[in-house]
Automatic annotation (TrEMBL):
It holds the Pfam family ASCH. It is an enzyme of class 3 (hydrolase). This is N(4)-acetylcytidine amidohydrolase. Keywords: Hydrolase. The active site is at K23, T26, E76. It catalyses: N(4)-acetylcytosine + H2O = cytosine + acetate + H(+); N(4)-acetylcytidine + H2O = cytidine + acetate + H(+); N(4)-acetyl-2'-deoxycytidine + H2O = 2'-deoxycytidine + acetate + H(+). Catalyzes the hydrolysis of N(4)-acetylcytidine (ac4C). It comes from the Bacteria.
Length: 108
């Protein structure tokens, strides 16, 4: 099944933070570099492919792994050590990331 360009998945452990607007960025590799500012993305859980919200892409920038700072960690609702460990776990050895800023699309 081809992956829609209007979808994005997150690990289930991030769902509550996204819905509570505590997580407002996500750091991805080049496989998701097609994401564009202004897009509305359908958000699915990675583990079970369950749609749980929609997000509005507000920004897409490049950031070096070594340039990750406390402000990025705060936008992920993590400590900087937790964020760096997560990124290296998901993308071992990565040096440049796509920083996608988003806002939750409020369901009626
Ligand atoms: C499934 C997946 O890649 N999830 C990710 C990856 C990076 N950041 C994030 O918040 N979620």
């Amino acid at each position: 099944m081809t992956k829609s360009m209007n979808n994005i998945s997150f690990f289930e452990r991030f769902e509550a933070d996204i819905l509570a607007k505590r997580k407002t960025i996500t750091l991805r590799d080049e496989s998701e570099s097609h994401v564009k500012v202004g897009q509305i993305l359908n958000v699915y859980t990675f583990e079970s492919d369950r749609e749980f919200c929609k997000i509005h892409v507000r920004g897409v920038t490049l950031v070096a792994f070594d340039a990750l700072e406390q402000r990025h960690a705060e936008q992920e609702n993590m400590t900087l050590a937790q964020l760096k460990a997560l990124i290296q776990e998901i993308y071992p050895g990565i040096s440049v990331l796509f920083l996608i800023e988003f806002s939750l699309v409020e369901s009626r």
